[in-house]
Request: fold
Amino acid sequence: MTEKNHKGRLFIVTAPSGAGKTSLIKALVELCPQFKISTSHTTRKPRQGEKEGVDYYFVDNDTFDNLKKSGEFLENAECHGAKYGTAMTPVEESIKAGKDIILEIDYQGAINVKKVFADAISLFIIPPTIDDLKKRLEGRGQNSEAEIKGRLLAAEEEISHLEKFDYVIINEKFDQALCDLKSVFNDSPESINLETSKQKRIFQSLIDSIK
Ligand code: 5GP
Reply:
C-alpha cells in the first residue's frame, strides 16, 4: 500500500466510569504520540482542570441540539444526565490523512460508530471486580454517594454490552493494562490473547458478580 492510500485506523475505547480509561489512554498517547484522541462535544460542565477544546468542547444544550440537527455528529448519546457527541469531520479527515484516531466514548456510541465504520477496532476496559470499581470511584472523591450509586448501576448496564467489543482489557494492574493496550494499538501478535472470545473466562466472573 502506498503512503497516499494508507488509511488511518479508528479505535473506540469504552469503559465504565472509574475503570481507568482516561489515565490509560493518556499514558498510551504519551508513549505513542502518533495516536490522536478525538475531542467530543458535551453539555456537561467542565470539571476542575479541564480545558475547552482539549478535554471536550463544552457547549450548551441548544448548540448541541443544533449540531445534531445539522448532521455534524458521527454519533451522540446521553450519559449520566449529559449529552455527548463525536463530530464526523475530524474523524473522516484523520482516517483520510492516514492518522490513527481514538474515540473515548460510551457503549451506545461504540455500537453506533461500528455501524458507520465497520472496521473500527473496539476495546472495552473493565475493572477486575465491581467492588474494585466502587473503591476507585470513592477514592477519586469527585462524586457524591448518590452519583457513585448511579455510576455503578450504569457500569452494570455497560458491562452487559461487553461482548460486542473486539478486545477486552482488564485494568487490575495499570502497567499490565497499558502494555495490553499498546499491544492492541500496535497490532502485536500478543493482542490475540486479548480478543473478547479469549478473555471470556476472566470477564465472566465479573459479569456473574453483578448478576
Ligand atoms: P465524562 O463526563 O466522565 O468525561 O464521560 C462520561 C461518559 O461519556 C464516558 O463513558 C465517556 O466515554 C462518554 N463519552 C465522552 N465523549 C463521548 C462521545 O462523544 N460520545 C459518546 N457516546 N460518549 C462519550
Notes: The chain has one domain: 10-210. Helices lie at 21-31, 61-69, 88-96, 107-116, 130-140, 145-159, 174-185, 196-209.
